[in-house]
Design the sequence.
């Protein structure tokens, strides 16, 4: 796998020779985009931070991988932390930041000692004075959002904040801040050093399969070719792109090329290339209820539709699974889901209904069959 | 910058948020969480509008050139209605807000919220404080109280706790407000759009004593409420209703109507004497005013090392309460035990103040301006039409100095007028201290008294006070009022308030001062009589006993 | 407003809370007051932050803090059976602590171990590919 290739500080050396302008240009030229779901061009983000005048700048490595079904960042943290750390060092060099945080989700606490050791070794070997701190999270999905991660480090409730101002101009402690995902930053040294670097993406496959795991694949291969790798246990019914990406019926879309724009056309999102495979033995209503519970638990509480709405959605879905809901309830549910999607404050609230709206689009009969 | 709203072009200020623009242009947009002067909450999601096919909360959007906005499409209506249904699922039974601007019932009916689609699921305890009552069951998590307490008052008594649908407003560890460092200023009441926070009402108690024939019930009215009470009866902000207020209260059955302005004059007599004494002794400086009970609590919580700088004077209504039960009781030959003193104050913290044991308070009940209006309404008095009457003269003659206590800077100005005249025997050349008038958060100036330059500063709003205290050493005399604008913006005042309304109330107060013949407490014949018959001199032993107090250190938690 | 200027130690708050949680199993009122004294952050803010996070508690937790995942990948691999077994063995429900203060059980969000589903953590140590039998074994080990 390309992502596991070590660069042994040679990329940093090369970056320093090139200088920050050229390094950012190179990242832009190679077309690297954010791997946390947003897909923002990494070079552009760096350029914006570099251009903002400030006495201090920060780099945050977002290792708060909270999306259900996603474990690719853990895979990197376990298997190639050296290259990730080198990537962070290059990012700091490119934007002239003196301090970097690795925001590690609390669920990955067991990885912390090894990661700390690796940081110490790499920094020592590079004779770097960079201040790199592992900042542990404390259990919140929303903190993966970039303004929320800043709030969390600043000791506040991990609730998302208004944008603009964007973190690139007023981020952590109001200073320009680069926030990149683990996979994005690990790609940096590799694309700097290796001429044959390819834009490959890690896919987290799990669910009703025999071979769950992280698979490195080029962008745009067919859905069926991806799913085949994980060896489904039974006939596949649907694919969930994590919780926030929504779902697609497998048979209808198995020939589709997995590109962000194709999936967006179906009102879903590829996000961080998470795929949860659901087979014919499972009920979509049950999965919808399960995911609704997740959003009810993880809603930050800031805005009305997400705070109050996710609770009501869960309630209705439970009623439906129990066969207690009426047709009217079902209509209220659909209206409510639409309002939550349209009027929530942050991206997470807005996407919290993708799973339900797409399930209603493709599997409506399963819901209707359970109504009173 | 030009934008298009519902098909019409408008020239707009690019720095203002869309919601503010829409309101200014006369569009009716429902909103609960937006408040001028605090950070944008973006919580309630009622101010939704449609911009280029997408729904957006107008409170968080900055206009862009050529932006097309639709304020009431079907999509917009549905989104607003559903969010309102979600908010009011828990509390549609209670439409108890006193905020006329955000009438809850109005929002519910206008958005077409008819049935309760969602069951009530949450249950919270009700926090019955001595001054402020919080009922979280009515709360819509708009965040205005939290932001006001933190961003304007720097008190941080409340914050959100837990997350998602368990998120609620609370003091730390779910304590009651009484048990934490809350200054009881009541700004959270003014901020709350749904009446989830309100003052601890004492209206029923007052109605009871009014019925009691054995009791001699006396009322006093604070300097600021004559400039605001009219609003409760539909009069425009800034209407000065002194005469109507006195007449209406007399009609409610109070045996005497006294004027807290006289208490203010007394405070000035004592406080300016204290200032002159400190000037003579060389300190401790700065001397800090203590008319504001929320401010006193703030100091007792957070600034223990400055407690020695606080003036020892009781607040004006406490002084008048004391004088009523001594000076007046003796004069009128009434047993003080049978006198009930009711203070009508712009303030919720005064409710707490009158329960302080060290004051041995002469005040039995404190009503806010809003409660006073309810009292007058209770007796079905036509406030607008009632003919003016005068205060009872025994404790009802006052000066312009007492009158301006209600505005930020007023206490300082009054004290300086009096101190100057006491020290020099002459009226100060210009009575109006313009540098400490107006709505600014921090104001300062200086004056020469007997060849010595006295530097003074004034702050309103406790964040401003915090900032001022950082430079406390630069000054000889500091006045602080906890509420924005001073008492005219108190937590017990008519709602809604905004900068414009505050400015009008303030103007009314200064106009009153300008019209008065007596401008300096020293010249007040009643004040002179009280000293002659009861106290002797300012800071005398008797004064110390009746009119002065001391302060205690309280935990900052 | 630059928070660093108002509260220079604001970025120390979460690490302090996590350390306290690890040391004492919860963040007591007393501990919170101490942290407030040290960081100068108002206590209401600290309580607000503490209660926001799922892994910080204001009530005492058991010596073994069990966080079991019930997000889709685990759910599809029968996590509910495992959860039921746990509830049966410990005689507590999610969010509760056993009377002997040994175990606390929390059904939570994805722990990023979907390739080992169903999975759980005990004091942040991951146990994957759980079955009823495995659960019995693990709990037995903790008990002894």
Sequence:
């Amino acid at each position: 796998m390309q992502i596991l290739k070590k660069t042994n500080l040679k990329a940093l050396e090369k970056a320093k020779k090139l200088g920050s302008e050229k390094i950012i240009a190179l990242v832009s030229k190679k077309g690297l985009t954010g791997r946390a779901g947003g897909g923002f061009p990494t070079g552009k983000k760096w350029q914006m931070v570099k251009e903002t005048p400030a006495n201090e700048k920060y780099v945050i490595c977002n290792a708060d991988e909270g999306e259900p079904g996603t474990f690719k960042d853990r895979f990197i943290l376990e298997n190639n932390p050296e290259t990730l750390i080198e990537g962070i060092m290059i990012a700091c060099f490119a934007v002239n930041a003196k301090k970097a945080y690795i925001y590690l989700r609390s669920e990955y606490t067991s990885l912390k000692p090894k990661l700390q050791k690796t940081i110490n070794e790499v920094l020592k070997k590079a004779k770097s004075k960079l201040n790199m701190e592992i900042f542990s999270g404390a259990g919140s999905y929303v903190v993966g959002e970039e303004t929320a991660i800043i709030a969390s480090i600043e000791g506040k409730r991990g609730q998302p904040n208004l944008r603009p101002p964007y973190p690139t101009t007023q981020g952590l402690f109001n200073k320009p801040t680069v926030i990149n995902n683990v996979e994005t930053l690990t790609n940096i040294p590799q694309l700097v050093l290796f001429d044959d670097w390819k834009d490959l993406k890690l896919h987290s496959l799990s669910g009703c399969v025999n071979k769950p795991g992280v698979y490195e694949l080029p962008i745009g291969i067919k859905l069926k070719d991806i799913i085949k790798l994980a060896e489904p246990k039974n006939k596949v019914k649907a694919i969930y792109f994590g919780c926030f990406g929504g779902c697609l019926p497998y048979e209808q879309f198995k020939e589709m090329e997995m590109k962000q724009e194709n999936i967006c056309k179906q009102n879903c999102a590829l996000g961080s290339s998470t795929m949860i495979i659901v087979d014919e033995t499972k009920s979509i209503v049950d999965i919808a209820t399960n995911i609704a519970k997740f959003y009810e638990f993880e809603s930050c509480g800031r805005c009305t539709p997400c705070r109050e709405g996710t609770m009501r959605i869960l309630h209705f879905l439970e009623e439906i699974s129990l066969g207690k809901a009426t047709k009217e309830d079902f209509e209220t549910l659909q209206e409510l889901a639409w309002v939550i999607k349209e009027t929530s404050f942050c991206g997470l609230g807005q996407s919290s209904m993708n799973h339900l709206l797409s399930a209603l689009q493709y599997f409506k009969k399963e819901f209707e069959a359970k109504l009173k | 910058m030009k934008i298009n709203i519902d098909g019409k072009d408008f020239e707009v200020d690019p720095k203002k948020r869309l919601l503010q623009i829409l309101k200014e242009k006369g569009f009716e947009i429902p909103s609960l969480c937006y408040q001028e002067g605090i950070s944008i909450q973006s919580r309630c999601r009622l101010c939704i509008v449609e911009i280029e096919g997408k729904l957006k909360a107008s409170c968080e959007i900055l206009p862009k050139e050529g932006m097309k906005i639709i304020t009431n499409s079907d999509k917009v209506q549905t989104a607003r209605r559903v969010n309102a249904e979600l908010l009011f699922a828990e509390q549609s039974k209670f439409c108890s807000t006193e905020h006329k601007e955000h009438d809850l019932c109005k929002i519910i009916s206008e958005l077409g919220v008819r049935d309760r689609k969602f069951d009530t699921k949450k249950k919270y305890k009700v926090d019955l404080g001595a001054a402020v009552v919080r009922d979280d069951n009515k709360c819509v998590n708009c965040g205005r109280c939290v932001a006001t307490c933190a961003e304007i008052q720097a008190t941080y008594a409340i914050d959100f706790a837990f997350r998602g649908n368990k998120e609620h407003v609370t003091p730390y560890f779910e304590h009651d407000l009484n048990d934490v460092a809350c200054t009881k200023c009541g700004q959270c009441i003014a901020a709350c759009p749904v009446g989830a926070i309100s003052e601890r009402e004492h209206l029923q108690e007052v109605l009871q004593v009014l019925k009691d024939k054995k009791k001699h019930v006396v009322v006093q009215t604070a300097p600021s409420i004559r400039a605001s009470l009219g609003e409760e009866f539909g009069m425009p902000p800034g209407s000065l209703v002194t005469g109507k207020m006195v007449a209406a209260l007399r009609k409610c059955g109070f045996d005497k109507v006294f004027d807290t302005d006289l208490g203010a004059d007394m405070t000035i007599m004592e406080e300016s004497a204290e200032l002159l004494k400190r000037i003579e002794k060389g300190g401790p400086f700065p001397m800090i005013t203590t008319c504001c009970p929320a401010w006193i609590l703030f100091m007792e919580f957070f600034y223990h090392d400055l407690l020695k700088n606080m003036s020892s004077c009781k607040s004006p209504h406490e002084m008048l309460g004391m004088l009523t039960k001594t000076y007046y009781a003796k004069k009128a030959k009434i047993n003080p035990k049978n006198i009930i003193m009711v203070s009508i104050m712009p303030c919720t913290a005064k409710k707490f103040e009158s329960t302080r044991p060290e004051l041995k308070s002469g005040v039995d009940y404190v009503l806010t301006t809003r409660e006073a209006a309810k009292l007058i309404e209770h007796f079905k008095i036509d406030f607008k039409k009632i003919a003016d009457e005068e205060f009872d003269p025994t404790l009802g003659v006052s000066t312009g100095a007492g009158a301006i206590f209600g505005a930020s800077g007023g206490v300082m100005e009054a004290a300086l007028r009096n101190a100057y005249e006491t020290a020099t025997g002459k009226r100060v050349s210009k009575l109006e201290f313009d540098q400490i008038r107006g709505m600014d958060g921090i104001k300062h100036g200086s004056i020469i008294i007997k060849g010595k330059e006295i530097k003074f500063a004034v702050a309103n709003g406790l964040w401003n006070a915090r900032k001022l205290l950082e430079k406390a050493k630069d000054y000889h005399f500091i006045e602080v009022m906890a509420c924005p604008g001073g008492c005219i913006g108190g937590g017990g005042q008519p709602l809604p308030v905004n900068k414009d309304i505050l400015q009008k109330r303030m103007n009314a107060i200064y106009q009153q001062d300008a019209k008065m013949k007596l401008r300096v407490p020293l010249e007040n014949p009643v004040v002179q009589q009280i000293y002659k018959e009861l106290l002797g001199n300012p800071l005398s032993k008797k004064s110390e006993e009746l009119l002065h107090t001391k302060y205690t250190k309280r935990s900052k938690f | 407003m630059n928070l660093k200027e108002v509260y220079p130690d604001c970025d120390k708050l979460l690490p302090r809370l996590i350390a306290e949680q690890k040391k004492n199993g919860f963040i007591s009122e007393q501990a919170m007051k101490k942290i407030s004294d040290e960081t100068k952050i108002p206590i209401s803010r600290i309580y607000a932050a503490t209660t926001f996070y799922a892994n910080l508690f204001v009530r005492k937790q058991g010596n073994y803090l069990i966080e079991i995942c019930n997000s889709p990948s685990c759910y599809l691999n029968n996590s509910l059976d495992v959860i039921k077994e746990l509830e049966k063995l410990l005689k507590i429900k999610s969010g509760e602590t056993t009377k002997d203060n040994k175990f606390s059980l929390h059904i939570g969000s994805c722990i990023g171990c979907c390739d080992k589903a169903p999975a759980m953590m005990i004091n942040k140590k991951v146990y994957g590919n759980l079955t009823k039998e495995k659960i019995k074994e693990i709990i037995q080990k903790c008990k002894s």
About this structure: Chain B has a mean pLDDT of 93. Chain B touches chain A at residues 40, 42-46, 48, 54-55, 57, 60, 75, 78-79, 82-83, 86-87, 89, 117-118, 121, 140-141, 160, 162-167 (CB under 8 Å). Residues 212-547 of chain B form a domain with the Rossmann fold fold (CATH 3.40.50.1780). The radius of gyration of chain B is 24 Å.
